[in-house]
Amino acid sequence: MDVEKVFHMTGGVGETSYSRNSSFQKKASDMVKQVILETVEEVCLTTKPKSIGIADLGCSSGPNTLSNIKQIIETTSRNNKLLQPAAPTEFRVFLNDLPTNDFNVIFQALPEFRHQLKEKRNHGQDDEIGPSNIYIAAYPGSFYGRLFPDHCLHFIYSSYSLHWLSRIPPRIYDEDGRSMNKANIYISESSPTQVSEAYFEQFQEDFSLFLRSRSEELVSGGKMVLILLGREGLHHADRGNAFFWKILSRSLTNLINKGEVEKEKLDSYEVHFYAPCKEEIGEIIKRDGCFQVDRLEIFEVEKNIVRNGMSYGRMVAMTVRAIQESMISLHFGEAIVESLFEEYGRMVDEEMAKEEIRPITFLLVLKKL
């Protein structure tokens, strides 16, 4: 399966869209908002740009992207007004995701985005901000490789994107092209050792290429804030992010038992995902030598998000569906999607009643050397 041609969040603004089902991602962004804004301030103090280049890599199609960009622009404008009162800062904002992403949802939200900034200026809250000095463009393509010209960016932000691999690791297949990870869609307790090794090798390859590419595109002193899913220890099959994939495998198995899915379909389905640990991330950054680690922290997204009386399991199911539906529909067929995620939400709630599931997130702040 060609991930770059197939994988995308569910577009539009409907009930099952990513736009309507990204509240966990929004919560995480809010939790680290101060770090993001402080990092942008530090870059501006160091580089003193008249025109600042900002990129959101893996922007997807929901409201979170423009919300983050708006806060960055407002904070940067206020600070730069004190540093360079004679000339308003120019903003070059690049929104990146795979070509299959629904960029139209973002474009349709731009008039309101510009209106809000204009209203602030008209009410005297920030006379440095206006549509005339903000330039926003979409940059479709994989961020595992070069996207932008040399030294054109000052700040890069990527939220919940770098745990997605560029491809399903080829080494999980035997010489006949069959998966060695049968009945699993990710690393589990029953997975052969070579499966976890293959996933880690692919993550190393991808993350290293990402770092080298961004190093060429950032100015000296430029910084990145990266948010990605991970795991706490060296053991892959923990009761965290890996456990959610285990529940999805079990949900598919239940559909097999009901005659709705063929077993061969499950045996040949893998996710292009990897949850690294802190040591793995740190070692790759150190080995590549392109960036200095300013922060490498672990946090958990609060589970007290309420949406129309939905249970936690139902909200997780809607979130995972908005992320995985494009891949699952292609492989298993659209007919199973509703029943699969109903089953999945129920099983997440059942497991949460037995014992807490603790998916952890990493926050990285990297400075170009």
From TrEMBL:
Stated name of the protein: Jasmonate o-methyltransferase
Gene3D superfamilies, A to Z: Methyltransferase, alpha-helical capping domain, Vaccinia Virus protein VP39
Per the similarity annotation, which family is this?
Answer: Belongs to the methyltransferase superfamily. Type-7 methyltransferase family.
Q: Which terms in the Gene Ontology molecular function aspect does this entry carry?
A: metal ion binding; methyltransferase activity
Q: What Pfam family is a match for this entry?
A: Methyltransf_7
Source superkingdom: Eukaryota
Which species is this record about? Answer: Nicotiana attenuata (Coyote tobacco)
Give the GO terms filed under biological process for this record: methylation
For this protein, the record's InterPro entries field holds: MeTrfase_7, MeTrfase_capping, SAM-dependent_MTases_sf
- The yes or no answer to whether the keyword Transferase is present is yes
Q: Tell me which UniProt keywords the record has, alphabetically.
A: Magnesium, Metal-binding, Methyltransferase, Transferase
Q: Does the keyword Transferase apply?
A: yes
